[in-house]
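Q: What does the assembly look like in three dimensions?
Context provided by user:
Components: two
Sequences:
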Amino acid sequence: MAHVSELIASDIDAYLDKHQHKTLLRFITCGSVDDGKSTLIGRLLYDSHMLFDDQLAAIEKDSQKWGTQGDQIDFALLVDGLAAEREQGITIDVAYRFFSTENRKFIVADTPGHEQYTRNMVTGASTADAAIVMIDGRKGILPQTCRHSFIAHLLGIEHLLIAVNKMDLVNYDQSIFNSICQQYQDFAKSLDIKNAIYIPISAFKGDNITSLSPKIPWYQGLTLMQYLESVPVQSKTNQTKPLRIPIQWVNRPNLDFRGFTGTIASGALKVGDQIQVQPSGKHSNIAQIIAAEGECQEAVAGQAITFTLTDEIDISRGDIITHSGTPAEVADQFEATIIWMHEEPLLPGRQYWLKIGAQTVTATVTSIKYEVNINTLEHLAANHLNLNNIAHCNLNLDRPIPFDPYSENRQTGGFILIDRINNNTVGAGLINFALRRSHNIYIQNIDINKAARAKLKHQTPKVIWFTGLSGSGKSTIANLVEKQLHQLGMHTYLLDGDNIRHGLNKDLGFTDEDRVENIRRIGEVAKLMVDAGLIVLTAFISPFRSERKMVRELFAAGEFIEVFIDTPLELAEERDPKGLYKKARTGQLKNFTGIDSPYESPENPEIILKTSQNSAEELAMEVCRYLQKI
Amino acid sequence: MKTLTHLQQLESESIHIMREVVAQARKPVMLYSIGKDSSVMLHLARKAFYPAPPPFLLLHIDTRWKFQEMYRFREKMSQESGMELIVHINPEGITKDINPFTHGSSVHTNIMKTEGLKQALDKYGFDVAFGGARRDEEKSRAKERIFSFRSSAHRWDPKNQRPELWNLYNTQKRDDESIRVFPISNWTELDIWQYIHLENIPIVPLYYSAMRPVVSRGGTWIMVDDGRMPLEPGEIPEQKMVRFRTLGCYPLTGAIESQATTLPQIIQEMLLTTSSERQGRMIDHDSSASMEKKKQEGYF
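A: Here is the predicted structure of the complete assembly.
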């Protein structure tokens, strides 16, 4: 790794001293497929002498096997690290590469160009200070150029370098460069992109990369490397913003020390500063700061610190520390831009975990305001979001959180959404603003509560939730159970398709979105009835684990009893009391559970009833026996 | 206004990752391999939780074929850090006497390292394991997330990795799944050496050049570290000034001839050399996708 510095050989100590003071810049390369992103990274590594002989030998070997550049070395193979990528000749996932110059260390995320890998580009862009947008001089601006610029801008990358590449293949023609720049400027204006600069290059030949190319005498601006060395880094601009420290972990090794740990998201902190804890609103003063280098008087954005306070106040993971005069906003309803990253679609009404800072809360998209077509920037109506869709949504959380708009602070305004069943990261979000109504809803305290009503009825309110395929016997068994309970003098109510679908939910159909909303409303109604002191029985297919889990969490521990009516599909179809399976099989009925819509069996139901082995009466008795035991 | 250097930023990122794990994991552990990357990772952990000691155990997956100096260093370090160290050796490897000479590097690595690691994680019920891998080491690692999810069978699925945005790490998982976390993913070999130099972090003396008994095997120098090393007829170990850029099982780790006896000299040599550090590692060269394959099987 022959760094071009004479100091290495002559005075290694002087060299080391100099290199301790480098800054760090993170950037991404993006642009259309085959515009030369990977080639540029290979070139940067090669020109900054970050490639070793054995690595070069390995690439030469791979170039012969998979290369797309004839006899020449295919630099793309250097960054395409997965076997599948080398075989298919495309970049699937983000690769992180490192190189450094005399002044800076660089972390570059090479992001895939194909539209189906948009989520991976978003991932790379989330931490970047700058973006290099590659444009093939022969092809000009393509839809992907616009899409990537839009995403880079959306994720808050302020500095864009528009690199018009493959100038060698257009005879280094200035008019071609100028016309591409003009086109891009018009487009950039529509997105409100401010800091864009333009450089003609050839990544393959090395023109204007580290030195100005004699073949492009008409360009006398910065080289690509000079640009990268001079872009302002985010860590520095973050210091000028108000103080935000999301608390990660409380360090309590003994009774005498109670330290709070976290990485400073923005601003700066000094010993003696008066701080405020959010959302609790309590105030105190900084007593001691311990950073990586030891105890210190001051710490700034980007540093992971531990601090102590002058007062004993309660702070826990997820709280945010601010200066007393400049608190963050607190709200539980937002307008946010969501980028969907999973094959399973986002459904409004379904609950997801939302992680922001060090806090994880439950969130629901209450409505999709509009989807953005990322190629044309048109607004489209949408009732769900598919993989790689980007949309403006309203979001409702289960509790208020401190936040800043993403445009002001990436760390306190950016969040991820996590699926509550398979635990995948399914979406990314950027908070735009808090919804006003969230400040105006208060819970009215009332004197007569659930316990008082239940006492009057001499019973413990609960919900018995029957789930299973159509025709499995839910309503039959639920009806028998209710009769039994009624005879015992219990106050009950049975919710089923007949009294819900024809009234409260008559506006809902059977698409996945509507099924989610259907169950959400039933859950809320059941909750009100349990609050009224009743024993509620429900008989709905309720096919999705997510929604059953959501309903379960509406209730106190032990109040929700899930009864799985386990009937094989063949048996239910054979019974077919309402003739629905027949209609579904002949295509007259769409989205029918078990046929063309999935049923997700419960994983840990309180009761499993196998209707293939016992009669409905025996199974109803089984439920009653269970209820007596608890 | 304060300018953070690249090392300060890397340091903060690593500390942030470790704290995130400790705040969220049920039973984390740090894989300690005795090498320079492990030394840096441990040093960072001690800073992250200061004044408390790091609230997790250290785990060394031993193959019985490490250098003797590594074992001595391991004991010394464990005493000094005040942290508890667990050593696990695959018992199957002991009964079958698995070794790199009779069984070859691939079988040896698979049974002693990959299988040994999986056994130990299952045996103690660790749900998150810190590893000292870096993205600049190898091209499939360049694609791996900092929080890398493993199935109940410890398998890595490179095509199905969770997106990792900002510094928000999703630690949710099923009870039978585990996570390998790589806090020094974004450090390069040069960063590691500069940091060791700046912070005076102790490392195994094998990294410094000294006269050592070696034989030439397959174009590289192999150190005759103990009597278990079978010599070819007529092969006589010679004394040479050599050192190691990475440390592993001694029969699988090539030495380089060197005069570097101080840290600045090591860094100087590294900056002037033309080969990468893993070149001395025999286990990477089986095929161009061999590390990706090993990782899918549960290696590290």
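Follow-up: Residues 353 and 362 of chain A are 5 Å apart (CA to CA).
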